[in-house]
Amino acid sequence: MFGLSKRDAGLLFVVALLCLFAPFILNPFPEGSAMAQFNGGYPDLMQRLVIFGIFAIGFNILFGLTGYLSFGHAAFLGVGSYAAIWMMKLLTMNVIPAIMVSVLVAGLFSLLVGWISLRRSGIYFSILTLAFAQMSYALAYSVLTPITGGETGLQPKHTDPRILDGALPAGQSPRANLFGLDMKASTQLQLGDWVFTFNAGYYIAAAIMLVAFYLSIRIFRSPLGMMLRAVKSNQQRMNYTGLNSKPYTLAAFVISGMYAGLAGGLLVAMDTQVGAERMFWTASGEVVLMTILGGAGTLIGPILGAGFIKYMENIVSKINDNVLHGWFSFMPDGIENFMVTIIHPFVGKGWHLTLGLLFMLVVIFLPGGLVEGGQRIGNLFKRKKADPKSPDGTTTTPAE
Amino acid sequence: MNILEIKNVNKRFGGLQALGNVNLNVAEKTVHAIIGPNGAGKSTLLNVLVGKLIPDTGSVMFDGQSVLGRKPYEINQMGISRVFQTPEIFDDLSVQENMLIPCFAKRDGAFAMNGYSSVGSQRDVMDKAEEMLVEMKLADKRHMHAAAMSRGDKRRLEIAMCLAQDPRLLLLDEPTAGMARADTNNTIDLLKQIKEERDITIAIIEHDMHVVFSLAERITVLAQGTPLVEDTPDNIKGHPKVREAYLGETQVAA
């Protein structure tokens, strides 16, 4: 199906179903209940889940396949965002040109950065990419203020030229749209106590993520993907097999840069503003965490990792002391306060601590990331079902 | 006709003259062994041939074209394949993928942006790789992780990968180093078979005299960076200069 093997097509289908039903899956708790805190099915978060999924899918093409660890991919995300917002300021609030130009500009920028950084490998490559990203961040904050808006950032204004759009009625703020369909348009479905939100922007971002995921599967299964894994495995043998590893790594770098630019453009399409902090090194580090947490070099891993981290960031960080007191209110006062004090550092602003601990646990016990965890659970079930006559009913499946 | 002509090659590393005025010709479709004691400059010479080192002076011509200043991948594309002392294969890939990569390199050259169609859809390359796997008796291991193979099988795979490119010159750097006797004999048989069945020149650097005398048609003895003698195996066996180079003195009982 679509030129994919049965297995890969199945994977794509599962991801498509998850995207389609995300508003239900992420909202398992009835509105107003104590657990509603954990509901993630609101448009802003769902959009971020799929957009950062795209970012991580692209990063995985570089890091997962070639093993080159870039610490500067947020720069391409940021450049994509700036390109998108300028399209919205100059051309039209329609998201199509914004997204296309963001991919193009990020691709060109990553060609330049990659061409220079890929002269080195290993830690030196990582440091070079980090230096480029921090340079971009610093420039966006200071010298390039006319283009980037500096500290205030950029957003579409009523007074922008927008040559393709008609003049806006007075007092109406420009809104991102797809041929008139507002990105923020939502419909709600109420079933008993449950409320499910379906957002136009989310479904557009999810559709784009599916295309991005499909292309990444094709790259993984193509001769190019095999060569990129060869780069990671043994560059010496590669060079002595008549293959020039440099253009291969550069191709992977530019492709992942374009994915980052696409994610940056989509962020602007969903929420029409951008600031330089989007390029800060912590943002570059975040995509590394997403990819490793989910499972570097696997197809689905980066999506899982991105979803996991963005969910944590948005949900765990919202749990404050009031919520904690609510949870433990059934306990005697002393114990209640004690429990709140214990948990307090791990939630709210301390969500990074929880994330860090989880990351350590995954790296130590599941070096293959969440995907490896899933495979181990899957193997447990297979072993139970396996024919008792064949003692070894399990087959180790290659990482997907 | 000579496929490889090395003329007046010198290479110094600081105070060490690694190669001193090396002149060496390898005739087409022969098996030419280069032997010599440790530190004789065998590996330096090999690294000059494949583009890893650039000599201080001299010329290296392969089939009438200079290889000097070219990158290893360019020299490989000219038709020189190298087998390493410790097998260099793609450990993280399957045996089949290991075989496919040189087949793609042969068909598509040093770089091809082939990122959309699946590997399996490239019928010609798949068939070629399969053919090589069968020929080299690796077909039953095709889905195996290359890292999991035995040393002998890794060597066999590496040689197969080199042959898949139909090279005109195959360079072997101590192909049996660290092998058990049985594996060594298997490798000798394999190389004999390759020599008989293929239109290929083989240059071999080796320590093990058993291997050298089983395979070589010409032998060059290298000592202290300079070729000492070049002759047929029978003449080399009893040559006093060779004994001197290897054993340090001439008065040694036969």
Query: Which structural class matches the secondary elements of chain B?
Result: alpha/beta
Q: What is the fold-level CATH name, i.e. the topology of the domain at 6-280 in chain A? A: ABC transporter involved in vitamin B12 uptake, BtuC
Largest interface: A-B, 30 and 40 residues
What CATH architecture of the domain at 2-90 and 166-247 in chain B do you see? 3-Layer(aba) Sandwich
- What oligomeric state do these chains adopt? heterodimer
Using only CA atoms, what is the Rg of chain B? 19 Å
**Helix run count of chain A:** 17
Order of helices and strands of chain A: HHHHHHHEEEEHHHHHHHHHH
Helical proportion of chain A? 55-70%
Provide the spatial order of strands within the biggest beta sheet of chain A. Answer: 1-2
Name of the CATH homologous superfamily of the domain at 2-90 and 166-247 in chain B:
P-loop containing nucleotide triphosphate hydrolases
Describe the fold and architecture.
The complex is a heterodimer of chains A (400) and B (254). Chain A contains 17 helices and 4 strands. With 400 residues, chain A is mainly alpha-helical. In chain A, helix 3 (43-66) packs parallel to helix 8 (200-221). In chain A, strands 1-2 form a two-stranded antiparallel ribbon. Chain A has a domain at 6-280: ABC transporter involved in vitamin B12 uptake, BtuC (Orthogonal Bundle), CATH 1.10.3470. The two termini of chain A are 17 Å apart. With 254 residues, chain B is α/β, with parallel strands linked by helices. Chain B has a domain at 2-90 and 166-247: P-loop containing nucleotide triphosphate hydrolases (Rossmann fold). Chain B has 9 helices and 10 strands. Chain B has a 6-stranded mixed beta sheet with strand order 6-7-8-3-9-10, sandwiched between helices. In chain B, helix 6 (181-197) links the parallel strand 7 (169-173) and strand 8 (201-205). In chain B, helix 5 (151-163) packs parallel to helix 6. Chains A and B meet through helix 8, helix 9, helix 10 and helix 11 of A and helix 2 and helix 3 of B. Chain A: GO terms for molecular function: branched-chain amino acid transmembrane transporter activity. Chain A: Keywords: Cell membrane, Membrane, Transmembrane, Transmembrane helix. Chain A: The chain crosses the membrane at residues 9-26, 46-63, 94-116, 123-144, 200-220, 247-268, 288-311, 323-347, 353-374. Chain A: It is found in: Cell membrane. Chain A: It is a multi-pass membrane protein.
